[in-house]
UniProtKB/TrEMBL annotation:
InterPro entries assigned to the protein according to its UniProt record, in alphabetical order: DNA_brk_join_enz (IPR011010), Integrase-like_cat_sf (IPR013762), Integrase_catalytic (IPR002104), Integrase_recombinase_N (IPR010998), Integrase_SAM-like_N (IPR004107), Tyrosine_recombinase_XerCD (IPR050090)
Official protein name in the record: Tyrosine-type recombinase/integrase
Ranges for domain Tyr recombinase: 101-273
UniProt-recorded Gene Ontology molecular function terms: DNA binding
Keyword Transmembrane: no
């Protein structure tokens, strides 16, 4: 079995073991990048030293991001364990320390502009659902019709990151919009479907968001995750308890949710800069 065939078999094993589609896609992407670099025919013929050398080249010379480093190491460790029952030592290949980056957050007026300038009903429903529920891209794509409970006013999120299911609120404004959307598009299984009633794609979702941001003349780099960041930050600014936000987002640790305290403007607006106390005309 050659290198590419081994990758195909590994993908099938991950699918059988119930790994999420996002994890499978990320691991396969990392392994294909590694395979392209090495051109290896038989993966198990690579020594630990050779694997370390290639990883080090990626991590240092190629300036691979922290997240990409973690994905490559995780994929390699799992691949060699499942395919060859081989323990890959990676203690000396720990990813570079993750830099702290403040998430991009939209102002409420910017979210309003994206929705107002989106005339396509399906696209508007997608944008509204992302923002109203604070969903990750994969969670939106996997959202099925039977996950929405209008009576209990809840939406169930299944198979989320870390295989943690959760429930979020189902706001009336979103419910009314989705009712109009459903009457026009009549999706069969998933809330948002592509061609032939298949699952909507991540690339199509990204295009919907970027096009809406462009129409709204927003200069920030806007992705589907930006609407999730905005959802959390706006909740915090409205006085919602940080632990409730943690549950709504499906964060395992409160530390992850605390990042939104760095971008909330509600507290900053109460602080007066010392320049305001200067007796000088600017």
């Amino acid at each position: 079995m050659d290198g590419k065939s081994q990758l195909i078999k590994f993908q099938k094993i991950m699918e059988l073991k119930g790994y999420s589609p996002n994890t499978i896609a990320a691991y396969m992407s990392a392994l294909k990048l590694f395979h392209l670099k090495t051109g290896v025919t038989y993966w198990n013929s690579l020594s630990n030293i050779e694997i370390h050398r290639v990883c080090f080249d990626f991590f240092s010379h190629k300036k691979m991001s922290y997240a990409a480093q973690k994905q490559m190491l995780g994929s390699l460790v799992l691949f060699y364990r499942l395919m060859f029952d081989r323990v890959l030592p990676v203690e000396n290949l720990r990813p570079s320390r993750k830099s702290f980056k403040i998430p991009v957050v939209l102002a409420k007026k910017e979210v309003e502009a994206m929705l107002e300038r989106t005339s396509n009903l399906k696209h508007k429903a997608i944008l509204a659902t992302l923002y109203a529920l604070g969903l990750r891209s994969g969670e939106l794509l996997n959202l099925a019709l039977n996950h929405l409970d209008g009576e209990r006013k809840t939406v169930s999120i299944y198979g989320a990151k870390g295989k943690k299911d959760r429930q979020v609120m189902f706001p009336l404004a979103l419910k009314q919009l989705l009712r109009k959307y459903y009457m026009e598009y009549r999706p069969k299984v998933y809330l948002f479907e592509g061609r032939d009633n298949g699952q909507y794609t991540a690339s199509s979702l990204l295009n919907v968001v970027k096009s809406a941001a462009k129409r709204a003349q927003i200069k920030k780099v806007v992705t589907p995750h930006t609407l999730r960041h905005s959802f959390a930050t706006h909740l915090l600014e409205n006085g919602t308890d940080i632990r409730i936000i943690q549950k709504l987002l499906g964060h395992k640790s409160i530390k992850t949710t605390m990042i939104y305290t760095h971008v909330s403007v509600s507290e900053m607006e109460q602080v007066q800069s010392p320049i305001e106390q200067l007796r000088v005309t600017l």
